Structure formats: structure tokens, C-alpha cells
TrEMBL record:
Residues 1-21 form the signal peptide. GO terms for molecular function: cis-regulatory region sequence-specific DNA binding. Keywords: Signal. This is Jumonji domain containing 8. The lineage of its organism: Eukaryota, Metazoa, Chordata, Craniata, Vertebrata. The keyword Ribonucleoprotein does not apply. GO terms for cellular component: nucleus. The keyword Membrane does not apply. It comes from the Eukaryota. Residues 132-266 form the JmjC domain. InterPro entries: Cupin_8, JmjC_dom, JMJD6_ArgDemeth/LysHydrox.
Amino acid sequence: MEHKNTQFVVICLLVVLRAEERTDDGGGWSLNSDFRLQDEGPCNIDVFDSSSLSYQQFIERYAYSRPVILRGLTDNTKFRLMCSKSSLLQDYGDRRVRLSTANTYSYRKVDIPFQEYVDIFLRPQSTDTLGSDTLYFFGDNNFTEWQSLFQHYESPPYVLPLTSGAYSFGIAGPGTGVPFHWHGPGYSEVIYGRKRWFLYPPEKEPHFHPNRTTLSWVTETYPHLPEDEAPLECTIRPGEVLYFPDRWWHATLNLDTSVFISTFLG
């Protein structure tokens, strides 16, 4: 009887721990490191609740001209639960993921098991780390292998005419991010953590070293920018979606261990 009671207590404890992880804002990912960046910076990008900006207004005011942040656009509660640390490791720990160097200087790719990435590579980044030495899990997702996860994601409904969405999913530690680059339009949503964004219009190329990280740019260059070279910027949290127009320069900085997904419109 005593042995059965002990088993019952252990099972109850595991259930409680699992529930606490799922209700925690970090989904268990924040337990990976106590380190996080505190400075969210200013927010000079327009922010709307989804009920305050119609699709027609989005097309007329933002789709082709400037970024915007939308709150409560979709309900991804189920997807968020599926992206908790314990759930992803249970379902995808043995799957191989492709890591890329987080810069515009080199194109190194490394394939490792997802569990190994979480255990070894998912850690805070220092300011002196070069982009070519930083392996980042974002994009390069095998859609077939991750289909069982992606099918539960509700993408932003405000799509551009004659486009369709393609997903890129990522998980990264505090201090990581992608340096300035540009491509077609799309959305970025944070599932867990916080992500700081910096954007410039197509005609205003920012000054940055192609083999330096966003963290080093924020530390060394950003504080000394003249007013007329300041970026549009904001930090987004779970439940917020940032839209970036076609060919806009942008860089990102993960302030916490973050889980995120982008929808590229092509």
C-alpha cells in the first residue's frame, strides 16, 4: 500500500509540474537560463487591437508602406501549448533540425537532433561572438516532419492579394537574433518570450558589419546613431504579430529564450 501511495504522489507531482510549465509565460523555456535582456527599447511602430484595424484599412495604410503590430489577431492557444518545452521535446526531440549561421557573411548549415540543440546550443549569446560562429534554428524547417505542429497554427488572416504564406519556425536563446537583411513581406509572431525588432525602409540601408550580430550592433552602434538614422523599432510579446512590408530592412534580437514563427507572403 505504501508503494502505491508513493507512486500516486509522484504521478500527481509530475502532473502539477507539467501544468505549471504550461501555464507559465515561458512555457518551460525560461527555465533553460535565468539570463534575459531587460531593455525593450522604445516602440515607435503603430500598434492596434485587431478590432481597431479592418482589413481594408490594413491594405490602404500599411500593407505596402510601413510596419504595423496587431494584437489579438488570432487565437493560437492550442499551438502555444504544443510549443512548450516538454511538448516539443517529447514529440520532436529525436528529429533532426538544420541550424544556420545568423549573419549575412557565411552560409554554414549544421544538422543535429532537436534535443541536442536544446541541450547544447540554446544558450545566451555574448556581444563578442561573430555571426559566422553563431548557429541559429530558424527557417530550413522540414515542413513534412513538422506538419503535425504547423497544422495547428492559425496564421494572420490579413494576407496580401495574390500571395500565400510559408512558415518558418524557430527557437533561440537570449541575445541571439538575425542581423539586418531584407526579403519579401510577412508576419512575425512570438509564441514564448520577447523579440525586439529594428526596421528601416528599403531606401535607407542601415550601417552594420555583415559578420557582427544584432546584439553587438545594439551595444556598439545603436546608442550613437544620429536622430535621422534611428530605426523604427518595437518589442513584441506573445499575442502580438508584427507585419513588415516588402524589401524593408530588419534585424531582430531575442530578449529571452524565445519560440517564434514567421509567415512569409510570396
